[in-house]
Design a protein that fits this description.
By secondary structure, this protein is mostly helical. The protein contains 5 helices and 4 strands, in the order αααββαββα.
């Protein structure tokens, strides 16, 4: 059976800056999109285009999804300190919780150690009730 309305998904950013230098500005763009009710739409687009998260493409995505921002002299999408602070808060919270990489999934506050396919996750959620 399905989980229904007793399920809530909470997404937190954990940009691995050393490995993926564009992950942080991409997360900031997603947060700017969230303020306009477009988080999942932009999130899904960013994940589908993980090889194209350079400043040029982030600016193009911001325009495509009508997410206003300012470009600095390098052309990097700049969503503002509010969004950078949100992403940093998520990252620090992840560190405090023992997150070391992505994806990391918690079910009812406990780290999920199984697979990420739908059936495995659904079973973990049902067992955690």
């Amino acid at each position: 059976g399905r989980i229904g309305d007793r399920f809530r998904l909470v997404y937190r950013h954990f940009p691995l800056r050393e490995i993926h230098p564009n992950a942080e500005p991409a997360a900031e763009l997603a947060e700017a999109a969230a303020d306009r009710g477009k988080f999942w739409e932009v999130h899904d687009h960013l994940f589908a285009n993980q090889d194209s998260l350079d400043p040029y493409h982030l600016n193009a995505y911001a325009a495509q999804f009508e997410i206003p921002g300012e470009g600095d002299e390098s052309g990097r999408f700049e969503a503002g300190n509010r969004y950078a602070d949100r992403v940093e808060e998520d990252f620090q919270g992840g560190l405090r919780s023992g997150v070391g990489g992505t994806p990391t999934i918690y079910v009812n506050g406990r780290p999920h150690r199984g697979g990420y396919d739908e059936a495995t996750l659904q079973r973990a959620i049902e067992l955690a009730r």
